[in-house]
Design brief:
Number of domains: 2
CATH class of the largest domain: Alpha Beta
Number of strands: 6
Shape: elongated
Strand order of the largest sheet: 2-1-5-4-3-6
Largest sheet: 6 strands, antiparallel
CATH architecture of the largest domain: 2-Layer Sandwich
Number of helices: 9
Order of helices and strands: HHEEHHHEEEEHHHH
CATH topology of the largest domain: Beta-Lactamase
Structural class: alpha+beta
Mean pLDDT: 85
Length: 260
């Protein structure tokens, strides 16, 4: 097994263990909650194209994915398993995704059973479309079914394409209180996997975005209040780090890999 496949197995196994904690190893319950699903859907405000899904925490399986996933990501609903979804998350975001899920699980474990349904989870990450390009996804999840002990059985998730709004790759976790419960923003993360180092530094990303917009080195230097020599050094480093031989290749890879 190569290193990439080994990492995928570690990510999925870690995530599965986390989800089994939030479900408290509870037995599955028949999903008689269509009305509740529609109520939850109406409460979630959307800011772009979106699709929704139902996830079973106890079995770590997708039970339903809406057909609207096709125009957004290019995937058929029946191919979008949880394992498949994890594989499409950007390599720089996947470990943070798992750490967010661990943080969320620990939060829900300490909640009284009557408050489990009163929180919405919200964070963002990059996901690869079928054409190979990455889009920024706003991931919002609410619990729609619990057992008598407050164990999370099923959740309703909504994925919204916010690429038109989100111009950087910073990830932030929020726990939004419903029905008068307090909200928590930019929540401190409880790590179980080390965050993956990004390919480019913050300054290199700034320069890359300006290159994509058509600015030359002189203009970039003026905009960022740095010397042209510094800009040229950053450009050389960007090409080296991304294994690109020219700007055209760099721009193409930037869009495919979500570097901008």
């Amino acid at each position: 097994m190569d290193k990439e496949n080994q990492n995928e197995v570690v990510v999925f196994d870690t995530a599965k263990k986390i989800w089994s904690q939030v479900s408290k190893n509870a037995k599955d319950i028949s999903p008689n909650f269509e009305l509740e699903i529609h109520k939850k859907l109406l409460k979630l405000f959307q800011v772009g194209e979106q699709y929704h899904f139902i996830f079973n925490c106890a079995s770590s399986q997708m039970e339903f994915v809406h057909e609207d996933i096709l125009p957004i990501l290019g995937y058929e609903p029946d191919e979008f398993s949880i394992h498949f979804m994890l594989e499409q998350i950007h390599p720089e975001d996947i470990n943070t995704f798992v750490n967010f899920e661990n943080t969320i699980t620990q939060f829900f474990i300490q909640l009284p059973p009557e408050k489990t349904l009163k929180y919405k989870v919200r964070y963002n990450f990059r996901m690869r479309r079928k054409d190979g390009k990455y889009v920024q996804i706003l991931h919002q999840v609410v619990t729609i079914q619990t057992d008598e002990n407050g164990a999370v059985i099923r959740t309703l998730g909504i994925h919204t394409d916010i690429s038109h709004l989100k111009k950087n790759n910073d990830m932030a976790l929020s726990l939004i209180g419903l029905e008068g419960e307090p909200s928590y923003h930019n929540v401190a993360v409880l790590s179980v996997l080390n965050p993956t180092k990004e390919v480019l530094s913050k300054r290199e990303r700034e320069i890359l975005e300006l290159i994509i917009q058509g600015y030359n080195s002189f203009s970039i230097a003026n905009l960022l209040c740095i010397s042209k020599h510094t800009v040229d050094s950053h450009r050389k480093n960007i090409l080296k780090k991304t294994n690109c031989s020219n700007v055209s290749e760099l721009i193409s890879k930037a869009f495919q890999n979500g570097w901008c």
